[in-house]
């Protein structure tokens, strides 16, 4: 029996006559890294925003730890959706202090998460002087303040140079090694293929594939085939 931390059943989001997400049923195993792949505009961000309560689903349901999603579920979830919300005139520590006060978390947690993302020694340097990679890592640090069981990262490598991408990749793998579950959305196939245990391919708001292609399968070719065929002729792999 699968040990799922999160699943969705026919999750949908409609704007007027447009279906942004259509009957998406995800299965996320506890402790895994789940790569949600798709072209820009495929419905990835909309799906993730529903998982963290930023958008209300039009249909379907979300189940976390075997229970229907409620506002209280957010205590188990950390997220970085799109760009991190940071104050450029504050230091890394000061930015996180704002979050601890909002979340009513002891400020002693700040040192721990800054060490986790390798930003402990930034001192009085203002965030406006940070590189893009440092800002992304600070956004992840904020997401870690509540000790989440599930970490959701939406396109975290956007705008990063190769060194920043490598740092972030190693960080994500370290979370999984500690037992945390990570959902990572991206349109960069090579990055996801290096860290993900399971992938979901979404296009046009539909989940076309969920599982892992054969080890000898080229992910880029597989992805293209799934997108072009709309998933109709693809074999589904159990996760």
TrEMBL record:
<protein>
    <submittedName>
        <fullName>Lantibiotic protection ABC transporter ATP-binding protein</fullName>
    </submittedName>
</protein>
<dbReference type="InterPro" id="IPR003593">
    <property type="entry name" value="AAA+_ATPase"/>
</dbReference>
<dbReference type="Pfam" id="PF00005">
    <property type="entry name" value="ABC_tran"/>
</dbReference>
<keyword id="KW-0547">Nucleotide-binding</keyword>
<dbReference type="InterPro" id="IPR027417">
    <property type="entry name" value="P-loop_NTPase"/>
</dbReference>
<comment type="similarity">
    <text>Belongs to the ABC transporter superfamily.</text>
</comment>
<keyword id="KW-0813">Transport</keyword>
<dbReference type="GO" id="GO:0005524">
    <property type="term" value="F:ATP binding"/>
</dbReference>
<feature type="domain" description="ABC transporter">
    <location>
        <begin position="6"/>
        <end position="229"/>
    </location>
</feature>
<dbReference type="InterPro" id="IPR003439">
    <property type="entry name" value="ABC_transporter-like_ATP-bd"/>
</dbReference>
<keyword id="KW-0067">ATP-binding</keyword>
<dbReference type="InterPro" id="IPR022501">
    <property type="entry name" value="ABC_Gallidermin_ATP-bd"/>
</dbReference>
């Amino acid at each position: 029996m699968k040990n799922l931390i999160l699943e969705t059943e026919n999750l949908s989001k409609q704007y007027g006559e447009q279906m942004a997400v259509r009957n998406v049923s995800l299965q996320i195993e506890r402790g895994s890294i789940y790569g949600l792949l798709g072209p820009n505009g495929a419905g990835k961000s909309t799906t993730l925003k529903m998982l963290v309560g930023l958008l209300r689903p039009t249909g379907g349901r979300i189940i976390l730890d075997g229970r229907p999603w409620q506002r209280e579920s957010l205590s188990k979830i950390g997220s970085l959706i799109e760009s991190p919300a940071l104050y450029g005139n504050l230091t890394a520590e000061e930015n996180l202090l704002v979050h601890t006060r909002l979340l009513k978390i002891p400020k002693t947690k700040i040192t721990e998460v800054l060490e986790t993302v390798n930003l402990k020694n930034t001192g009085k340097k203002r965030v406006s002087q940070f590189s893009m990679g440092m800002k992304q890592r600070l956004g992840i640090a904020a997401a870690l303040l509540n000790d989440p069981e599930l970490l959701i990262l939406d396109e975290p490598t956007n705008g990063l140079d190769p060194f920043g991408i490598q740092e972030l990749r190693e960080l994500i793998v370290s979370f999984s090694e500690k037992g945390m579950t990570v959902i990572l959305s991206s349109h960069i196939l090579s990055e996801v293929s290096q860290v993900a245990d399971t992938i979901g391919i979404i296009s046009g708001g539909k989940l076309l594939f969920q599982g892992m292609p054969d080890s000898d399968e080229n992910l880029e070719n597989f992805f293209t085939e799934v997108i072009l065929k709309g998933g109709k002729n693809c074999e589904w792999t159990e996760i």
